[in-house]
Structures are given as structure tokens and as C-alpha cells.
Amino acid sequence: MIFFYLSLQKSILSEKSVIKPIINLLFPKVCYACQNHLNDNEDTICTNCRHDLPITNFHFDNRDAIKKVLYGRAKIENGTALFRFEKKSTVQQLIHGLKYKGYQNIGFILGNWLGAELKTIEAYKQIDYVIPVPLHKKKLKKRGYNQVTKFGEQLALALEAEYKDGILIKITNTSSQVNKKRLARWNSNEELFSIQNEINIENKHILLVDDIITTGATIETCITVLNQVKNIKISIVTMAIA
Predict the structure, then answer these.
(1) In sequence order, what DSSP letters do the residues of 165-234 get, joined into one string?
(2) pLDDT, position 32
(3) In the chain, what are the domain boundaries?
(4) How many whole angstroms separate alpha carbon 108 and alpha carbon 162?
(5) 168 near 222, Cβ under 8 Å?
(6) 25's torsion region: left (phi>0), alpha (psi -120 to 50) or beta?
């Protein structure tokens, strides 16, 4: 009986070793950044692209780049971004794929990456809840997902915090902020968000997550709304900073 089981297991493994190359040939896995084929030991982003990504290391170097973006407008405890964002860059390719092509695994990978680093830093061990910058329900229905959900979920898992996407609500549907000038972004962000179940986050340390921080207008508005809650602390994490 044992011999039969071992023989069957060996046969299954042998079949997998034969089938896998065929599947890879018919449905090749490609890097979401450069579109080149991935090797068997690579996942989502190839090794070359990973090495070329412009990592900030803000959280290790104690640089306050996020605080400087929000200086004089919103108070935060801590802030960091994984990458620097530039147009026509690998980072732009990744975030574009995440937002518009359904490549949600990018958020999963980046959340794992940054989460593994943040959990070693004392300042981020005090996080109670991870909250995403929300999409309006119409945009969420059209896209089918919030691009920062997987990112936030993995950060919460790494920090042993709770991911909550029903606290901060976007109440006004707006067009993309990408091509708007700074003043237009601030004006368009007036009265965009509301908060529900606020008593659940009283006296808590919140980690607010988004994909990119540019002028900081959207995050500033979220912080203003969240600060209506009693004795709340807010930190910021984004995938990239422009």
C-alpha cells in the first residue's frame, strides 16, 4: 500500500514536471513592468526590474518627505513611500497595470515588500487599523476593485493590524486627478469624503494608504475628515511619491 502511494505521488510529480513547461509555453508569465517572460523562480516582477526600481528607504533613513508634502496642512505621525514616481518609468508601468489592467497581484507584492520592512520599525508597530483612500461606489463598480486593497491588506497582515475599508467613504465622484494642476486638485477635493462608524477608531492609530502622493490634496482631505474622530493618530503609506 505504501509502495503504491509513493509510486502514485512520484507519477503525479513527474506529470507536473512535464505539464508545467507546456503551460508556460502556451500561457507564458510575463513581468508586469517590462512585459518580458518571467523565469520559473520569478513572480509578477522580474529580477531586473526589481533591481531597477527607485526605492526611497524613507522609513529606514528617517526622512520626512511625506511630512514635507503635507507641511502646514495636515499633521501625521509617520509617513513613507516605497518608490519614487516618474513619468514613463517602471513604477508608472506597475501602477498603471494595477489601476487599469486588473493586475491586482502588484498590490499584493508591493504590500508584502513594504510590510516586511515596516514591521521591523518601532514607529509602525503601533498601528491599529489600516484604512485605504476609498473610491467612489460608481468608480469601484466600474473598475471592480480598489487598487490599494491588496496593498493595504498585506500591510495590515505584516503589522498585525486590522484592515478596514468601510470607515472612510468617498461621497463625490470626481474625474482623475492625474492631469490637474495643484490648485484645481485642492478645489476638487472639497467635501469628497465622509466617515462612518467613527467610534470604532477613537483613540486609535490609523495607517492611511494610497497608491501615489503628489500634491497631497486627496490625503490632506482624508486626514481632515479623520481628524473629526476623538484622539486619533494618523500615519501615511503610499506605493510611490511623485
Answers:
(1) SSSEEE-S----STT--HHHHHHHTTT-EEE-SGGGGTT-EEEEEEEEESS-HHHHHHHHHHTTSTT-EE
(2) 87
(3) 54-241
(4) 16
(5) yes
(6) alpha
Could you report the per-residue pLDDT of 185-226, keeping only the tens digit for each?
Answer: 444 445 588 998 887 899 999 999 999 999 999 999 999 999
Q: For residue 85, what is its C-alpha cell?
A: 514616481
CATH class of the 54-241 domain in this structure:
alpha beta
User: What pLDDT is recorded for position 200?
Assistant: 87
Work out the number of other CB atoms within 10 angstroms of the CB of residue 7.
Answer: 10
- Cell numbers describing residue 69: 508634502
Contact 45, 113 (CB under 8 A): no
Are 177 and 218 a contacting pair, CB within 8 Å? yes
pLDDT digits (tens, 9 = 90+) for 126-157: 999 999 999 999 999 999 999 999 999 999 99
Of 184, 172, 234, the closest CA to residue 214 belongs to 184
Q: What is the pTM of this model?
A: 0.82
